[in-house]
Amino acid sequence: MEDIHTQGIWMAESLQKRTMSQEKIWLVITHIGDPKAAFLLVFPFAYFFSKRAGVAVLWVAAISEWLNLVLKWMLFGERPFWWIGESRLFVNREPNVLQFSSTCETGPGSPSGHAMVTAAVWWVVVSTLGSFLYSRTHSVVLSAAPYLLYVVMLVAVGMSRIFILAHFPHQVIAGSITGFILGVVLSRRVPEGRPLLFFFSFSMGLLLGTLLLHAGLQQLGVDLSWSITLAKKWCSHAEWIRLDTAPFSSLTRDCGALLGLGLAQYWKPGGWSLPWAPRALSLAISSMGLYHVNRLPLPVQPQGLFYSLFFIKFVIVPQVVIVLVPGLVYLFTHKKKKD
């Protein structure tokens, strides 16, 4: 693996050297590819276009990010920003590379979570959009356009992760392929209309099962905090180490979102029926609401409190998009029509 890692470092150096003037663009792209964006940005857009697509996006995002966490624990992937120093292979010539505010993630590096979740979630979006365009236009060329954009997005997200030294190229490729497969498979079975017990059991099963796996690996002598130690050691700015990038943050986000999806479908089975204009209004209000929910400051100590509140935060997300905002929009627009 040393040769693969070394070539990855030189590739990152070359990419930074050639495209440093586009630094802001790369940082925007890496934020778009953040698994968190699937819950806070892609989900509401997809839901107000197609309820089934929205539920599928949330479902696929949660399962793919959870599986990514498990794979990272099993594969022990390095990250470029710490491997450069730990490998001690660059004594004669150190690579001329920079770190960024999004570089210092604390989980293992393989496979790339950004690439994996992006590939899975956006497959749901582009396949829905492609089918919609074909049903309206019967044009193969026009309906193929979303799939071309899908490939461009995966390449862009992957390159952004290499640019900021968060991943090696092979980790990005592995994440993209795995995410694509998950997107195809999971989007065929969307849990619409399932009872609340299904989502509660699934959410708690993932949470408790993962905690048991973590405890079991520790009992076997596997140090699952090794990546956190290295991230803190080699990150150039201590403030770039954030608890919301830790593995357990991903876990609580996924489990919270799944439970929230079940609650939302329990409160309002089938969702609210809205015409296109009220849907657009609901999307705008939901997006603003989720922006403020995401910005809510959480205490980082004790960590148990942080993770509990992080869980609740993502339980709220489906309530805002599926129940609260469209319900209010329906109430006001329905009254206006009656008047």
UniProtKB/TrEMBL annotation:
Q: What is its EC number?
A: 3.1.3.9
- Membrane topology label: Multi-pass membrane protein
Recorded hits in Pfam families, A to Z, give: PAP2
Q: Which GO terms describe its cellular component?
A: endoplasmic reticulum membrane
Q: Indicate the segments forming the Phosphatidic acid phosphatase type 2/haloperoxidase domain, all copies.
A: 53-187
Q: Which residues catalyse the reaction?
A: 114, 167
Note the InterPro entries from the entry: Glucose-6-phosphatase (IPR016275), PAP2/HPO (IPR000326), PAP2/HPO_sf (IPR036938)
Source taxon at top rank: Eukaryota
Q: Where in the cell is it found?
A: Endoplasmic reticulum membrane
Looking at the UniProt entry, the stretches that span the membrane are 25-49, 56-76, 115-135, 147-166, 172-190, 197-217, 305-332
Query: Where is it mostly found?
Result: endoplasmic reticulum
- Give the family per the record: Belongs to the glucose-6-phosphatase family.
Protein name per the record: Glucose-6-phosphatase
Q: Which gene encodes it?
A: g6pc3
